[in-house]
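Listing S7. Sequence submitted for prediction.
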Amino acid sequence: MKLTTIGRKLWKGARKAEQLRAAGADNLTVQARLQKLKLVEALKKRGVPWPEIQALVGISRATYYRWKRRLKNEGLKGLKPRSRRPRRLRQKVHWTPELLIRVEALRKQNPTWGRWPIWLALRKQGVTISERTVGRILAYLERWGRVESVAAFLARSRRGKAKRKTLRPYAQRKPKTYTVHSPGDLIQVDTLTVTLGPGEVIKHFSAVDLATRFSVAEVHTRATANLAAGFLAHLVARAPFPVKALQVDGGSEFMAEFEETCQRLGIRLFVLPPKRPKLNGHVERMQRTFRDEFYTRPLPSRIPELQRELNAYLDHYNRERPHRALGGLAPLEYLARMQEESVPRESQMC
């Protein structure tokens, strides 16, 4: 019994302390409001207009006259903060169990229906009810777990469907044991979008050999699998060595006809994992060279003329332009040195 008495006294003491703190806060509020009233009176006597008074004191004209009236009628108690609870509260609408069962049945039959379709269905059945009431019933059913929310149903349905994977009948991931020893062992291919001017956008196909940095490029108005297959035929014809393997990203232009052409020519096709452009770093760097050295000059907008300009630049790049990774040699010069070095080795082996 003593413990109960002590606990009750402590509880009463804590409650009284809380009341005193609240009263102290109210007193501070009363003092602050009284100071504002006095400040407004002083500014009014000096003829300061109300917009400036409101900006300086921080209260409107209506608030000033309301506090002044309360101070006159009730004294300092009139300046205490009052409850902001509305005088008239909306009465809670109670629905019948039959209506609850009807809304629940309609929602379970149509899991994606919100309040408006259910309200319309009930209205056609002769049930007089507001759309907002239907919404409250649905919220009640969802809160108690009797029906599933539309968002949860859609999320669950989408998770249940397996994402369709794009079939690549011939392309594969490059094996970790695959290495580049000679020209043509691996050529990286990619597309570049270039804006020549307002409304003039082209697609630039690039290919670069990892061993010699020999490069081939074509420009088109689009990037389709059919055009990519044509670019592959152009690459095979222009390359001074047999093309053994290609590496591309997952773009749609490197599927369908392009993949079929690789299979028909016996060229291995390696496709990059998603979001791994750095694995195609050689062709990405080559595309930067095209941007910096070729597309910064005045160029024609017509594709045939632009292709002729590009062929001239490629001839200069492959034959004359020094390449840092090749010890200052051009790609074809480096290829010639590789071929010269391979001949003595073959003769020694014989």
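Caption to Listing S7: primary sequence and predicted structure tokens for the chain studied. The beta strands are 187-197, 200-209, 215-220, 245-248, 268-271. The chain has a mean pLDDT of 86.
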